[in-house]
Amino acid sequence: MAELHLPATLPPLHPGLPRRLDVDARTVREAIDRLDGEWPGLRDRLCEPGPVLRRHINVFVDRSPAGLETALDATSRVDVIAAISGG
Amino acid sequence: MSEIVLLVGTRKGCFVLRSDAERRDWTADGPFCEGWPVYDTAYDPDSRVIYAAAASDWHGAGVWRSADLGSTWELSSAGLSYGDGGLRLSKVSGLTVAHGRVLAGAEAAGVFASDDGGVTWSLLSTLDGQPGRDAWNDPDRQPPGHLGLPAVLAHPDEPSRFWAVVQGFGIFETTDDGASWTPRNRGLRADWPLEDPAVGYCVHKLVMSPVDHDRLYQQNHCGVHRSDDAGRSWVEITEGLPTDFGFAAGAHPHDRDTFYVVPLDPGHGRCMPEGRAAVWRTRDAGATWRRLDDGLPGSNAHLGVLREGLAVDDLDVPGVYVGTSTGQLFASADEGDSWREIASYLPAISSVEVAVVA
After folding, report:
1. Does residue B172 lie in a domain region?
2. Domain limits at B79?
3. Does B348 fall in a domain?
4. Within this chain, do residues B53 and B21 fall inside the same structural domain, yes or no?
5. Is residue B116 in a domain?
6. Cβ A49–B56 below 8 Å, yes or no?
7. Which of these, A63, B92, B214, B292, has the minimum number of CB atoms within 10 Å of its CB?
8. Each residue's pLDDT tens digit, B132-180
9. Total-model pTM
């Protein structure tokens, strides 16, 4: 199970969604799909049609920049980071 | 006993203010919608649901809804998308409730509808084939503000008839629920060359008299205009106002000849002229105008009001509400004759909506 860490801005939008959770998925995209199944609409918060990651959403797998098709394994750590921007 | 509820959309979320019919003392709650920038709000008197159109820089666009007058909120963007085609939805910029559904105007320009109280949405139209459509969807020709289709004005008696405003291009009317459209800009003024005289007009705010549905008013980038034939033709009624520029406008609920605007300097400053705050009212369909400033700041008040920043309630003596882009909220309980500042330090205000809740 990949270990997923989500930005603090997401749980207030989806009641019951934790900041950290384990997901059984082979890619980042599949992990997001799994979350969207349980918390409908979550994919839209992270992805635009395509799907592609939103401009100000960054994903790191094991501390390296990643994309939706980046492979995951049972020991992967996935960090979803909202860009440090805005005012 | 009626409760007056003000829905205030700001750069940092939605606020809800409440008062009784006296409209003297107000309580404020918020921010709601997780601090997302809110571009417009709407209230459905039948379902008592509040809607707030919002877009987060990080998490995209959606419509928040509250079924308990603001205590709890849910977000949905289900169906608010152009899919994998060429258009990208950056925000919902206008909301309208009519005939049991919610209509949303979006950027890129399109109209969406929800028949289930904002839970799911479907695309109604992107005004295909209309003059100007290729230009308004050209990423290199986007105007500041980037609102796309910021307003839908619904006909109160005809569910399939409504008007859509496309930023920088003008008004389009449909009588068949978006299947076909007709530009409704005849008589408007544009201070720039037009490729096609049917379109190219910068309509900032379009309103309808609640007592005469053929009587429309608009604040345009170039002047204030009135229509007596439901938008088929327009006459300019700017004379008597201090400038021809402004964003916000409001119609009187009981008198078709009474209408409000907030003139602003037409340069890039776009604040109230000379730093003296005022709302202007006509009671004769634009033949004459009266400056209303009793209780508004009279010096060093460089205030701007955006297109959704003015609202009028429908009590016997209507209240008028104006929110500024620097976070002040002013209210009048006497049709604009006198004013009080009822909130001073809100975030930048994008929209003000008022509901009279029984």
Report:
1. yes
2. 46-59+74-201
3. yes
4. no
5. yes
6. no
7. A63
8. 999 999 988 887 778 999 999 999 999 999 999 999 999 999 999 999 9
9. 0.96
Task: Enter the tokens of residue B331.
Answer: 């209210």
Q: Of the candidates B201, B220, B242, which is a domain's last residue? A: B201
Domain boundary among B166, B201, B236: B201
Residue type, B354: V
Q: CA dist B312 to A42, B240, B260, Å?
A: 37, 22, 9
pLDDT in tens, B271-326: 999 999 999 999 999 999 999 999 999 999 999 999 999 999 999 999 999 999 99
Single-letter amino acid, residue A86: G
In order of start, what are the domains of chain A with their CATH numbers? 2-82 (3.10.20.30)
Which tokens in the block code for residue B201?
A: 């007009």
Residue A16: per-residue pLDDT: 96
Domains in chain B: how many in total? 2
Are residues B259 and B169 part of one domain?
Answer: no
Q: Which residue of B has its CA nearest to A84?
A: B58
Closest residue in chain A to residue B86, using alpha carbons only: A49
Peptide bond before B108: cis, by omega within 30 degrees of 0? yes
What is the interface pTM, i.e. ipTM, of the complex? 0.92
Cross-chain residue pair B58–A7, CB shorter than 8 Å: yes
Clarify whether residues B109 and B165 are in a common domain: yes
